[in-house]
Every structure is written in structure tokens, then in C-alpha cells.
Write a structure and sequence with these properties.
The structure holds 2 protein chains of 2 kinds. Chain A is mainly α. Chain A is built from 14 helices and 4 strands. In chain A, about 70% of the residues lie in helices and about 0% in strands. The radius of gyration of chain A is 21 Å and the shape is globular. Classes of the chains: A mainly alpha, B alpha/beta.
């Protein structure tokens, strides 16, 4: 009833091309952003901000990065955590070695370093596809972590290899309260998401999708696979790199190679599989599912007063069962469920 | 409907319960009972909880009961930070924490001073936190990795007949390729230079369930001793691979995270004769009898298998419980008996711990762990270790006395390292009151 587009006429190309063609969507997303930027930092508890929302946003950004590569350009990757590690360690080193560098610049430079590593490790994608490519990106994962543990320069000669990161400072302002960190992360994530969405809608995104759907055909109609694939690797790695830097600076407060292990790569891959491959919204839904659900289950287990060892194991089992359940009900991910819901809503209450 | 009602009623009761117990001493246990390291997590946290239950059953600390809450971290830094944030404000605020994970500890390190919650790190890094002037809220109690490494060299020297006999010897250092495995290297390198033994470092990529090439390297090098600095599945694999390659287990010396029943039992016969470091003397103590009688006999025990009572991890957990409760007691003596202490007050208590032999006897833990006396300069309080050997069925202490390595060296190293940290973080080293 409320969700109806009757009377909304598109009279210009501009209005036809906007991200949210339906007015209700536009209103809803503006409300959501306003809520996230104003109400949340005002009213949410520090726990909510620093332990739930910040990691959620950071992982959503990493999942978005992988989604660009896997979902839009069709290149399977198991190296997301490695790119995050490059971003985190590079940002750390830029701040440590170039005193006075603005933090945001360090994040961007960290992302660019990750992009360069991504381009190098994306080269095999020109020859190998699918599972074979996944195996070769696995090499990124091991190589990067190996470098970080082996080259003491990268960890600033710390004996243990774990480094506490610098304080987040910009123009004399220090981001140390949970709310300020949250707002910074939100701003970066919102900006990069908008950028990604527009990239995907533009010719760049279309070239990625052409390559994904059939690279031979794409080449025939004039897309250059080398450029397109490497660009996808670069952009995706940049996103992961920035997410990694945020993970280190805004969430953990440390950088250590172990935090970016293969397990994390898999988790990011699961996020996009569950959220929806090839969907911006899916990256966010998937991140919410993988990051928040175990926490919710844990809290719920405690609420029921179960003994901890049962609660912990139960949490794992329920989590696994839910993954299987969602994949059976909707193999295309939560984003697809959302889309179906929206389509139903447009017809409601008269489905025929 | 009835079920919903009863759940709601239960929740309401729980809420009411939560209010009445607000006058208890709340401590946070970000534990891990699932995942690769569950054996360590369930044993150690189980031990601590058993001890808290015993203290509460005996009337608490001067009447103040201990209240704790667990939160599953899976040994994962990201979840650990979440758990810490969740627990720190509950029940009037957590007043003590120990995540039993280097990664999580580093993640919450900076938050602790702001939140004024002390953290103990029982048997793990970072070693330089022993300098209380730089790390006022961090307590690597009993023995840090630095002192453990020094203790290992001391033990190996004694075995060979003195430090001078180490000259020309070859010691292989087989380590978990992670911050954990790299932490003792400064100490080992310094001692190798000082005493003229050769240190062959061989890394094992975590988790370490395949070590054939590393042991071939060891066989080629043919060292006089192998130090096994491992964790989790790596340990039993190392022991089994050593057997396959015909390397005598008597020449292997494990770190204390490679010295529990969970490491030796899976290796079967291969583990016989293998020795490892510990800061608990294996055996039975009046306290463990008490726990069996008062806790497990009444069904309140935390371990699922009663056979694990008194095992290495369980005893380590009991030690943690004893140290925490003693810190609360010490704090109460200064700030008022029978009162609930704040995090800052417990921090004071941890800094003024004095668990001497007489106190250990009163507690029924005489000889279970070395005597602990902390100060602002020394948040570690001891630095002593023991060596235990697996006889095929149980651990036996093979050093009758506590072994203390070159503490002057470790002190120098930790001063340097902590001052670098202070300079990085712009902390002015000073004692808190």
C-alpha cells in the first residue's frame, strides 16, 4: 500500500538513472543514514558502538571489496584478509615513518599499497579461472602473512610481531571516543559504498560484468581483459586494504599478522555468499549475518542461563544450521530475499 | 503461551537476581571453550571458576562473594574485544580480566588504562608489561616468556654441568611462527652469544600439523637439545614426528603451553620422557582435595570430565583463581574489609601481592606455584619455573627447586622494550598509588 510507485514519473535521464528510482526507497535510505549518523552516536552505548557497529561496518566494507572482485568481475579470491593486512600494515608504517601525515592520507596510501599487491597477484587471473584462480589467490594469503612475520622492518622491529597502532589523529583532533571512531568509520564506509555503487553502474562496472558473464565474448566486443580484470583486482584490494586499516586502527588497536589469517578470508567469502554475490546490499547483510549473529547467539545463550560450555557449542551449531538453512531457502543470498520481499510488497495486498 | 509466560517470568527473576547481586565482586572471563584451543580454555577457566565457587561456598572474601561472567571468544581477537566491551560495564563494572590470548590482550591493552580495569596475563605475553611504571594495569604474573626462556637455558646449563659447559653446544629452537613464538628470541639470542652455544631457529607455520621437513632439518643439524615453543596441535605432532625421526624425547624441552596432558596423551608412547616447563608443581594439594569434596561432590564443578581435576591446565586455572582472590583480599585490607573493590583498588592489590610460603600453606597450595611478591617495578612477582617430565601416565617434576634464569638480562631487555613502548605511546613512566 505504502510501497507503491504510482504517480512517480521519470521525466529526465537523470531521474531514470538514479540509484534508488523509487521515492520510498530514497526516503528510507536517507532516514537510515540520518539515523546512523545522528541518533546512533547520540544514544547507542559504547559497547554497541565499539564492539558491534564498528566491526560490522568494517567487515561490510571488506565484503564489498570482495564482492566487486568476485560478484561483479567474476574472479574468485581467497586473499581478502591478505589485502586487509597489507592495508593495515602499510598505514601503520606510513604513520610511523612519515610523522605528521594525516591519518586519512595514510589509510588511502595503505589502500593503494593493497591495490598494487592486488594487481601483482591478479596477474594469474589472465590465464587461470575459477577454482584454479582461487588456489592462486590463496598464495597471496600465505605470501603476505609470511612476509609480515619474516621482515622485521614491516612490524617496526617489534620483538613479538604484534604492534599497537598509533592514535587516530586528524588536524589535531583525536578520535578516541567510541562515537567519534564510529562516525569516522561510517563516513568512510558510506563514501566508499557510494563510490562502489556508481562504479558498478558506470561503464567500468559493465565491463566487469561482461568479463564475468563470458570473458571471451567480452573480449570480442572490445573490452580488454587485462585492464578490466586488473582494475577489478586493484579496486577490490583497495577496498579491502582500507577495511584492514580501519580494522586495525578503529577496532582492534593493534596490527598483527595472525589477525589476518586464512580464516578471515573465508569469513569474508562466506559474507558475500550468504549476503548475495554481486550485490552491494548483500555485502552489508552478509557482514551483519557473519559478524553479529554469533554475538547475538552468545548473548541469547547467556540469557537462557545455559552453562557456558553448552552455550558456546550450541552457538556454533545453531550458526552452522542457519547458514545451511539460508543457503537452501535462497541460494542467491539474503539480498535476493530482500528483493523478493520488496517485489511482494509492491503488489501487496492484492497479489494478482 | 504458557512457555512464553514462563520465559518472561524467568527473565524477570533473572533481572531481579541481577539487582540483588550487584554488591558482589564482578570479574570478567572472556573464555574460549570451542575452537582449536578449547582444551586450554576449558581447563584454565574451569579451574578459576572452581576456585571462585569454593571461595563463595566458604563465605566469599571477607563476606564479599565473587561474581563472574564468561563470554565466548574462540581465541579470536575480534570476538575477544567484543566480549571485553560487553563484560566491562556489566554488574557495576568488571574489576579484573584475563583473556588468555596474546592477540586479545594486545587488542584491549590500551583500553584497560582508560577503563581502569586491571588485566592479568598468566603465563603469556607481553613480557615487558612486568614494568609497572609503563603498564600500570597489566600483570604478567608469576613468570613471563622472557624469564621462562632464561629458565630453560639455566635448566639446560645445569643439566650439562654449568653455564660454561654450554659452549659449543647446539640448541634447536622449534617455534610456532607467530608473535608467541618470536617473543623469547631476544633472550635466547643474548644467551647464545653470552655462553657460546649455537641457536638453530626453525619455524613451524601455524597450526603446525605437518612438521616432517622441520624434523629433517633437526636431524641434519643434530642438536644437543630441542626447545619446543609450540601451542595447540603443533605439540603432539612435534612429539610424534620426533619419534618417527628417532630423535630422543629426553632431549626435547617444551614451553609451558606444550606441557599439558592434552599435548602428551594424544602422542601416546612417543611422549614418554618428554619434558616441559611449568610454573605449577604437578601433584596433589589440600586445595584440590577441597575442590573435589566441596565442589565436584556437590555437582557444582566446572569441568565436564572429573579426570581433568588437578591436570596441568586445571591447576593453572586454580592458580589464577588464587592470585585473583588474593589480590582482592590485599586490596580489601587497604581499602576496607568486606567492601566491593573497584578496578583501581584491585590494581593496587595486584601490585602489593605477597603470597609467601606461610600464606600458601594457609591456602593449601604450598609449593603449587612459586612465591609471588609484586611491586610497581615488578608486576611479575616471581620469574621462577620448574621442569616436569611425562612418565607415560602423568607429569612429574624433575627439578626439586624452582629454577630462575638470568634475571638481570631479562630485566634489562624488558626495560628497553617497555621504554620503547612508552616513547611510542608518549607515556611518562611512573608508579600509580
Amino acid at each position: 500500500m505504502l510501497y507503491r510507485e504510482t504517480g512517480q514519473f521519470k521525466t529526465s535521464y537523470q531521474s531514470d538513472n538514479q540509484i534508488f528510482p523509487i521515492r520510498q526507497d530514497r526516503v528510507a535510505i536517507s532516514c537510515l543514514l540520518l539515523f546512523a549518523a545522528v541518533a546512533v552516536p547520540l544514544f547507542a552505548s559504547p559497547y554497541m558502538l565499539s564492539a558491534i557497529l564498528i566491526p560490522f561496518l568494517i567487515f561490510a566494507l571488506a565484503a564489498l571489496g570482495l564482492n566487486i572482485l568476485t560478484g561483479y568481475a567474476g574472479q574468485l579470491s581467497l586473499g581478502s584478509a591478505a589485502f586487509m593486512a597489507v592495508g593495515a600494515f602499510a598505514s601503520f608504517n606510513f604513520i610511523a615513518r612519515l610523522p605528521g601525515i594525516p591519518m586519512l592520507a595514510a589509510f588511502v596510501l595503505g589502500g593503494l599499497c593493497a591495490a598494487m599487491v592486488g594487481i601483482v597477484f591478479g596477474l594469474p587471473s589472465l590465464r587461470v579461472r575459477g577454482f584454479y584462480l582461487a588456489a592462486s589467490t590463496l598464495a597471496t594469503q600465505f605470501f603476505v602473512i609470511w612476509c609480515l612475520t619474516k621482515i622485521p622492518y614491516l612490524t617496526n622491529y617489534s620483538a613479538s610481531g604484534v604492534v599497537t597502532v598509533q592514535k587516530m589523529q586528524m588536524f589535531g583532533y583525536e578520535f578516541n571516543s567510541p562515537a567519534s571512531k564510529y562516525l569516522l568509520v561510517l563516513a568512510i564506509v558510506a563514501f566508499l559504498t557510494l563510490l562502489a555503487k556508481n562504479m558498478i553502474r558506470s561503464s567500468v562496472g559493465r565491463s566487469w560484468m561482461a568479463i564475468r558473464d563470458m570473458d571471451m565474448a567480452a573480449e570480442v566486443i572490445g573490452f580488454r581483459p587485462l585492464r578490466t580484470k586488473l582494475l577489478a583486482f586493484a579496486v577490490s584490494s583497495f577496498y579491502c586494504g582500507v577495511a584492514g586499516a580501519l580494522y586495525a586502527f578503529a577496532y582492534l588497536g593493534t596490527v598483527e599478522p595472525e589477525a589476518y589469517n586464512l580464516d578471515l578470508s573465508f569469513r569474508i567469502l562466506f559474507m558475500i555468499i550468504i549476503g548475495g554475490v554481486g550485490s552491494v546490499l548483500g555485502s552489508f547483510l552478509g557482514a551483519a549475518f557473519i559478524v553479529l549473529l554469533p554475538v547475538m547467539l552468545n548473548i541469547f545463550g547467556h540469557f537462557l542461563g545455559l552453562p557456558t560450555n553448552y552455550a558456546s557449542n550450541l552457538e556454533l551449531m545453531v550458526f552452522g544450521a542457519l547458514i545451511i538453512f539460508f543457503l537452501i531457502v535462497e541460494p542467491h543470498g539474503l539480498a535476493r530475499l530482500w528483493q523478493i520481499g520488496k517485489e511482494k510488497l509492491r503488489l501487496w495486498p492484492f497479489p494478482h | 503461551m504458557k512457555r512464553i509466560k514462563s520465559i518472561l517470568l524467568g527473565a524477570a527473576l533473572l533481572g531481579a537476581f541481577g539487582q540483588t547481586i550487584a554488591a558482589d565482586q564482578f570479574v570478567a572471563l572472556p573464555s574460549y571453550r570451542i575452537g582449536s584451543y578449547a582444551a586450554g580454555g576449558s581447563g584454565i577457566y574451569g579451574g578459576a571458576i572452581d576456585y571462585f565457587n569454593l571461595v563463595n561456598a566458604n563465605g566469599g572474601v571477607n563476606g564479599v562473594k565473587i561474581l563472574w561472567e564468561e563470554c565466548e571468544t574462540e581465541y579470536n581477537p575480534s570476538r575477544g574485544v567484543e566480549c571485553y566491551e560487553r563484560l566491562k560495564t556489566k554488574n557495576g563494572g568488571a574489576t579484573l580480566v584475563d583473556p588468555l590470548s596474546t592477540g586479545i590482550a594486545y587488542g584491549i591493552l590500551d583500553r584497560l588504562a582508560t577503563d581502569k580495569i586491571p588485566m592479568t596475563m598468566l603465563g603469556y605475553g607481553r613480557s615487558d608489561a612486568a614494568n609497572g611504571k609503563v603498564f600500570p594495569y597489566i600483570f604478567p604474573l608469576i613468570t613471563s616468556y622472557f624469564n621462562q626462556a632464561a629458565g630453560m637455558i639455566k635448566y639446560l646449563a645445569d643439566k650439562n654441568g654449568g653455564y660454561d659447559k654450554l659452549k659449543g653446544k647446539k640448541i634447536a629452537y622449534l617455534y610456532h611462527d607467530s608473535p608467541f613464538g618470536k617473543e623469547p628470541m631476544p633472550v635466547l639470542d643474548a644467551q647464545a652469544k653470552q655462553y657460546g652455544f649455537e641457536l638453530v631457529k626453525i619455524a613451524v607455520a601455524p597450526p603446525g600439523n605437518e612438521q616432517q621437513s622441520q624434523w629433517l632439518q633437526i636431524r641434519q643439524a643434530n642438536p644437543d637439545h630441542v626447545i619446543l615453543w609450540g601451542w595447540g596441535v603443533m605439540n603432539s605432532v612435534a612429539i610424534k614426528t620426533a619419534q618417527r625421526n628417532g630423535f630422543p624425547r629426553e632431549k626435547m624441552l617444551g614451553v609451558w603451553w606444550a606441557g599439558s596432558e592434552e599435548d602428551t596423551v594424544p602422542s601416546g608412547d612417543a611422549a614418554k620422557g618428554y619434558s616441559a616447563m611449568t610454573f605449577n608443581t604437578p601433584g596433589n594439594y589440600p586445595l584440590i582435595d577441597d575442590i573435589r569434596k566441596k565442589i565436584y561432590a556437590t555437582g557444582k564443578g566446572n569441568l565436564a570430565e572429573q579426570s581433568r581435576i588437578g591436570s596441568v591446565y586445571h591447576m593453572r586455572g586454580l592458580t589464577m583463581g588464587v592470585l585473583w582472590v588474593e589480590a582482592i583480599r590485599t586490596a580489601q585490607e587497604k581499602f576496607g574489609k568486606g567492601k566491593v573493590m573497584t578496578g583501581e583498588q584491585i590494581r593496587w592489590g595486584l601490585e602489593h601481592l605477597d603470597i609467601n610460603e606461610a600464606r600458601q600453606k594457609t591456602l593449601g597450595v604450598f609449593g603449587m606455584f612459586p612465591t609471588v611478591k609484586t611491586s610497581c617495578d615488578d608486576h611479575e612477582g616471581s620469574g621462577a619455573v620448574k621442569v616436569q617430565q611425562w612418565d607415560g601416565a602423568k607429569w612429574i617434576a624433575i627439578t626439586p627447586n624452582w629454577v630462575v634464569g638470568d634475571k638481570a638480562l631479562t630485566r634489562k631487555l624488558l626495560e628497553e622494550s617497555s621504554l620503547t613502548y612508552a616513547a611510542e605511546k608518549k607515556i611518562t613512566p611512573a608508579c600509580l598509588n
